[in-house]
Amino acid sequence: MEAARIEVRESLPAERISRVALDEKDHVIGWIGGQFIYDGNVCEVHPLAVDQKHRGQGVGRALINDLEEVAGSRGAVTLWLGTDDENAMTSLSGVNLYENLFEQLKNIKDFKGHPFAFYQKVGFQIVGVLPDANGVGKPDIYMAKPIGCR
């Protein structure tokens, strides 16, 4: 719980973005944060959380769309994120990504509902991977999407 409190406090400075989704009773059902990197050209999505009972109902999509609008109004041209695979949820887990990396990225498979599949549905593309970021065989998958029309 303390780690969550720290995360919330870190999201509150004016130079960052912190937005919540509320249900009809004004209970928080989702949260998204954004922090600017690369001189403000890129907004990193961190974090994105949706209450389990409300997943699959468009809450995450709405939060991403809102962040995209706010970040774009502040000058960002790209949304970016890293989504770890620490629990063998994709075909990139448990393999040597230093061999045939591009082929493995091209043929990535979702085994257990990894978040990368959601992010693809809302317009993100895989732009890279950091092998072994979380230990041997546990990569971080990098994803990005342009803000606005290209």
Topology of helices and strands:
Blueprint: H1 2-10, E1 17-22, E2 28-37, E3 42-50, H2 59-73, E4 78-84, H3 101-106, H4 115-121, E5 125-130, E6 140-146
Quaternary assembly:
single chain
> Percent helix among the residues?
10-25%
* Fraction of residues in β-strands: 25-35%
Identify low-pLDDT runs: none
Order of strands, widest sheet: 1-2-3-4-6-5
Rg for CA atoms: 16 Å
Number of helices: 4
Shape: globular
Major β-sheet annotation: 6 strands, mixed
Describe this protein's structure.
The chain is an alpha+beta fold and 150 residues long. Helices cover 25% and strands 30% of the residues. A hairpin with a 5-residue loop joins β1 (17-22) and β2. The longest helix has 15 residues, at 59-73. 24% of the residues are buried. The mean pLDDT is 95.
In short, what is this structure?
This protein is α+β, with helices and mostly antiparallel strands and 150 residues long. The chain is 25% helix and 30% strand.
